[in-house]
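Problem: given the chain below (213 residues), write out its structure.
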Amino acid sequence: MVVFDDGRSMRVQRVRAEGEVHVLSLEGGGEMAIPKSRISRTFEIPEEPAPVASGSAALARSVRWRNVAGPFADSIARAADRHRVDPVLLTAMAEVESAFDPAAISPKGAQGLLQLMPATARRFGVRDAFDVTQNVDGGARYLRWLLERFEGRTDLALAGYNAGEAAVEKYDGIPPYAETSDYVAKVLAGVDRIHGSKHAGAAMLAAASASAP
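Solution.
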């Protein structure tokens, strides 16, 4: 995956450095030479999504995210099931958003475990953003809405959660804001850690891309 300096991203087969340019081998064939300065970062993703965990592996995965989520695990599990999102992803988001502090308030006014802005809370039916059950359900509902809006792209959904969907649409990709790039990276790193795999976040991106229309 190549992320450009304007926030746009592109899946390619490989990247080859040649002096001051990077040559991108495109998935559909052919190559494209891009100035090195135009590329923000690159990272590898598996060619195939990680297999669905089963048996003892599934149990271990469940124990890991529940241990991280602690007393909020049941609320996260219910919201994840209701809105068809990954509980591991919600757990990683809560960790980055508020460090699991249900009373957290950001300098911009975001509230609660999943740091809902008051307008977003109202938009998704949350009356009390400091109520854990309501906050997590509203955050999960917003995440599902973003995933559908951005055709299953987990990275863009996370960017929209942090910066707003309008910013993602404006830049046609992850907005070139340091806070947003850091947020997406931290959440996906959290997914890796909770899964116990350094490829889990990338696999989530690959799976989301493969399932998009």
